[in-house]
Each structure stands twice: as C-alpha cells, then as structure tokens.
Amino acid sequence: MTSLTEVRTSEIIVKQYQYKLKAYMGVLTSLVTVQLLGLLFSLNGVGSRGTGTFGINLDINYYSADMIIIFTFFWGFMSALLMTTKAYREDDFAFITNRFSSNMSSVAFIATVSVIGGLTAIMAGFLLKVVVYFILGNKEIIGTGLASGPLMFTEGLLAMILLVFLFSSLGYLAGIIVQVHRVFVVLLPVLFFGCLQYLSSTENWNLPAFMYEFYFQESFFLLFAAKVVASAALVFTIALWISDQLEVKK
Amino acid sequence: MNIIECRQLTKAYRGFKALDQFSCTIEENKLVGLVGRNGAGKTTLMKVLSGMLKETSGEVKVFSHRPFNSLLVSANSIFIDDQMNFPTALSLAEILEESSKFYEHWNEELAWHLFDYFGFHKKEYHKNLSKGKESTFNMIVGLAARCPLTIFDEPTTGMDAAVRKDFYRILLKDYLAYPRTILLSTHHLEEVEDQLEEVLLLNRGREVLHMSIEELREFAIGLKGKREVLAPYLADRQPIYTEAFGMDEEYIVTRNNLSQKEKQDMKREGIQFSGVSASDLCIYLTSSGSHKGGTLDDILN
Amino acid sequence: MILNTDGTMPIYLQIAAWIENEILNGGLAADEKVYSQYKLADMYNINPATAAKGLTKLAEEGILYDRRGIGKFVSSEAIKIIKDKRKNHTLKSMVEDLVQEAERLDMSEEELISLIKETKNRNKGGEE
Q1: Which chain B residue has its CA at the smallest distance from A14's CA?
Q2: Where in chain B are all domains bearing CATH 3.40.50.300?
Q3: Which of B103, B282, B296, C117 is the Cys-Cys partner for B145 at CB 3.0 to 4.6 Å?
C-alpha cells in the first residue's frame, strides 16, 4: 500500500512560519509608512507655551511620540486582521496545513513582526527627538519617559512590543469573527463601542477605567508583562477555537 | 485498499444539498475521472475530500481519516483547481521552492523540467499569468507534489488544445512512473478517457454510476432504424436516450445487454448498431429530458 | 498502429488485436515476452488497466501464458489459436454480413461465389 507521510504538527508550523516570513514581509512596508506618518503628525507638537519676562522669551514646545505608538498599535491590529482574510488563509491550503498549524504559524509570525513593530516604534521616538533638534532648530531638548535609564528603557521597549502583540491578537480575533459572518464587519465595531459606552457610563463598574488600571497602572513590570501575554494568549485561543469551525474555499 | 470512502455523505449550503447522501469508494492507485454537469457536486466532493469543507452529515474517510482539519490528509493529498491561491508575494520559482519544502515526495526534476518546457520565467508572478498559463503552472505543482491522493478540479481550464494534450500525456506518464490515486474532474471526458481507469458520474449530488472506462464504453448501444421496427424490441426496455431521425426513423440508446439472437433478428430487419461513447452516455444519463418519466434505476436494473 | 478512439471497437480489443497481428507477422515469436501493461500504456497513451485487460483476454484464450512475477509470454500454439479464432469468429461474422448484403441486393449464390473467386485471383495476380 501507499506509504503515507507522517507529519509532526510542530514541523509543519515551523515550515509555515518560515514561508510566512518570506511571503508576508510586505507588512513591514506598511509599518514604515504608518510610523513615518505618526512621526509627521508628531512634529506638530502636542502643545506649546511661551512666557516672556525681563526681556527673555521662553518658548516651550511639547513633543510626544504618542502618535507613533498609537499608529503602531493600529498597524498591528490591521495587519493581524488582514492575515485572517480568505486570501491569506487559502495560501496555507496551497501547501500542507490544518487550521491549528495555520493559526499557530500566524501567531508566531505576528509575534515576530510585533517585536519589529515595537522596536521601530521606540526608535521612531528617538528619531522624533533628532528631527525636532535639527530640522526644527530647537536648542534644548529635555527628554522624559522611556529613555531615562537602561532598565527603564528595556522595560519600555518590552512593554511596547507586548502591547503591539496584544493589539495584534485583538485584530486577529476580530478578523476571524468577521470570517464567520460578514455581518460582523458592521456588528463588531457597533458592539465594541456600544459596550464601551454602556460600561463606562455605569456607575458601579467602569470597564475602560478598570482596563486602564489593570494594564497600565501595574507598577511591577513582570506582572504587567504576564497580564499582557496572558490576555493575548486568551484572545488567540478564542480565535483558534472559532477558526477550527471555519471552512476554506466555499 | 480504499483510499476514499464516503457513506451517506451530505454537504448542504443553506438548505441546498450539493452532495446528497452520496456514497462511494475509490481504491488505491486508480486514475478516476469525475464527471457530471455543472452543479452536480463535483467540486464540493473534492473540497470535502481535501478537508477544505466540512461535511454536513454522513461519513467521509480519506486514508481512513476524516479529512477536515487533518494534517495527515493534508500532507498526503493535494487539491488543484483554477482558483488556486498562492502567496502573492512569491514568484513562481519561490512557490516551487516552498512546495518542495512541504511535500515529502516532491519531484524537483519534473517540476523544473515542466517549468522550462512550458516557458515559465522564474521571476514571474502567479497573479500575472493568463488563465491557461495559470492552469498549466498549477498542474505542474499538482504533479510534482506526487501526493498519494492528487485531486485536479478541471485542471485544463483555459489551456489551449496542444497544452491539454500535453497535460494528459504528462499525467499518464507520471502516473505510470509513480502510481498514485488521482481524481480528476472534467467536462471533456472524451479528451482524457483513454488515460482513465474509472469514471464516477455525479448528478444532483448523487452517484449515477461508477465503473471502469471499458465497462462504460460498452454499457450502452445505439440502435437506428424505423420506429415501428424498433418498437417491439423496446417494449420491455428503458431507453436511455431517444432521438427522432428523418421521417420515421429513430435513434435509441439503450443498455447493451441484447442477446445474440435479438441482435441477429434486429440486423436482419435492417436495424443499425453503433457504439455509444462514454462522454455521450454521460450526457444522456444526466440530461433531465431523457428519462421520459423513468428513473435512472429503471434503466440500470 | 494508431488507436481508433471513435468507440467502434474497445481499446483493449484493439490492443489485443495489435499483439495478435505482431504474433502473426512474426514480430513476436513463441515463448517471447510481450510488452507489459505499463509499456503498452506508455506506447498507446492509455491507462495500464485497459492494456492489462487486453493482455488478460489473450491469456484467457491461450495465446499468451503467465509467468508469475515476470510477465506474459507468447504460447507455442498462439498462431494456431489466433488463426482458428479469426476463421471461426471474425471471418464468419464477416461472411454473415456479406451474405446478408448479397441477399438484400438479390445476388445469386453463384454470383457471390464468383465474386469471391475473382477477388482472390486478382489478389494473387497482384502478388506475383
């Protein structure tokens, strides 16, 4: 009888991950675009103040890399969402796959680009300082935040990477849900903002505030990291579970 | 050994049954043609077999495994159709390279040989290919993968006559060199019937017949003669197809189980016999107008 | 030989007939190995199962014999069997057609026989 090829799932995941690295590197082009755009918006500054006393004029301009960071989150969300679309899922079926290996290799790919996304977002923050200094001709730069120490810097970088990953996981889940039925394209945002509106208006329990506290007010870094990773894992697991029911090539 | 087993397999799309209580078995290393009219359920069957669609009810087994979500079935089968989706960022050469990494029995030599023979360029992109070239490229991947179960859904779409001829030749040659189970759907049975071993005819999600191509070719016989001369012979026979001919002549296709004596009598009365080609027979058996009220079972029994 | 694919004669019978002709014209001698089903499939661009069916038919008729695991060989009585078969079967049905057509044309027996003789003589003349 025909000898069947026995395959290990892990082996296929690795192969798929490798081909995705090659095939989907296009997302990095959009990353660069998005971050440059964020940088451009940031150049406006978030605020300025001017005082003049005793013949000395003091102009203070505030610049912030927030835009770059928010744009990067958005990019992570959208890139992951795109990976769940029919065309991408069918790509896997041109080769050996099942839904589990296809999703796992996508998660691995998303994790990889999240690292790149997080790293470049932080770098773009530095770039902003440089640009402000040279191009806008500002004389004195006072930095705050991420770059205020090696440990702080590392933690900030890791936090950035993890958050990009978390946003990507949400995008992935949203994408998978949309794949189940088109109606979720409309329903999902409506539900999301509706719930947000409702929950933030209730008096006894305020979800957005809770979320903010849960993630961003966590002062112990490792706990923060654990929370984010666990959340992303949970989101991916739900996505995987839903995707197991999905058909390709209808 | 059976490579494919379907029992009472049903696949419904929002109430429409593309496959309806479909049962069949396909043995190892057969080259099987899947025929039937548009909407007969050919593509649905192939997609269920390759694990892309989930059966609604019934049982489907490929290599004794349920294909949906099976890595084993995916690793040992390949499904090629004219809507093949390869990663758009990869060039043709890169697609072949990736395929070679995935498929254990991938035949590098065959792949590149055919690649050159059909005049592909390494840096071309799949999405820029013409319909016919696209089909040709997909066919190369399908053949070179050498999967124990190879499924082609209308592989010749858009190919010109010369390439189609080449394809059937290559298919047979590679099948001889490396026997495996091949399922091929087609609307042009006459083009590929010589290379096939069996034909599976589908109609409205069900199996109409499944037999060897040789049996199919001798399954029916065409009778041509005067209507009143033919009539007595057809009293207790179910015609598969009837066509009026000239003033009072008729062409009738019926099962080829006439006795020697019947044949001699008919011949003496000037009735002419002719073979009925497999592809014509399949058309007759699945065209709704030809049953004249009788069901297919009446004809087959 | 080019296969006739219009459905008038099954492919496996055409394969069998071709091997019979090879035997008759000396292309295949007694105890010589005949082509395998795969070789025939390749030669005629047909499915090996179809080719096998042709070979099996010849084996059933005693024209070929089987050596397990090696292949099929031409039997020593092959030529005799083929000739008998063609006389008793093929020729007979041809004659039947001939007689029937002659009857339809109201030809007398003598006329028919003389036509056969004439044809045979003409062929002889052509050979010499």
Answers
A1: B102
A2: 2-215
A3: B103
Cross-chain residue pair B268–C100, CB shorter than 8 Å: yes
**Residue A210 located in a structural domain:** no
Q: Is residue A200 part of a domain?
A: no
* Partner residue opposite B214 with nearest CB, options C38, C48, C53: C53
Neighbouring chains to B with at least 3 Cβ pairs closer than 8 Å: A, C
Please write the tens of the pLDDT for every residue from A68-119.
Answer: 888 999 999 999 999 888 888 888 888 888 888 999 999 999 999 999 999 9
- Asked if B180 lies within 8 A of A2 by C-beta distance, the reply is yes
On whether residue A212 sits in a domain, the answer given is no
Query: In Å, how far is B187's CA from the nearest CA of chain A?
Result: 21
The reply to whether A205 falls in a domain is no
Q: Which helix (H) or strand (E) holds B44?
A: helix B42-49
ipTM: 0.81
Report the mean per-residue pLDDT for chain B. Answer: 89
Question: Hey, are the CB atoms on B180 and A93 less than 8 Å from each other?
Answer: no
> pLDDT by residue (tens digit) across C33-78?
999 999 999 999 999 999 999 999 999 999 999 888 888 999 988 8
One-letter amino acid at A102 equals: S
Note the CATH number of domain B217-300.
3.30.70
For A167, the token pair is 């946003």
pLDDT at A172 over 50: yes
- What value does the mean pLDDT take over residues B100-114? 94
Cβ neighbours of A188 (radius 10 Å): 15
* Alpha helix positions (H), chain A: 9-23, 26-42, 66-83, 86-94, 99-134, 150-180, 184-201, 207-216, 221-243
Whole-number Cα distances in Å, B288 to A112, B204, B295: 57, 11, 10
The CATH class of the B2-215 domain is alpha beta
Interface contact C99, partner B, CB < 8 A? no
Q: Inter-chain contact B87–A7, Cβ cutoff 8 Å?
A: no
CA–CA separation, B172 and B170 (whole Å): 5
Q: Which of C8, C12, C100 sits opposite B214 (nearest CB)?
A: C12
Pick the residue from chain A with its C-alpha nearest to B64: A4
List chains touching C (3+ CB pairs under 8 A).
Answer: B
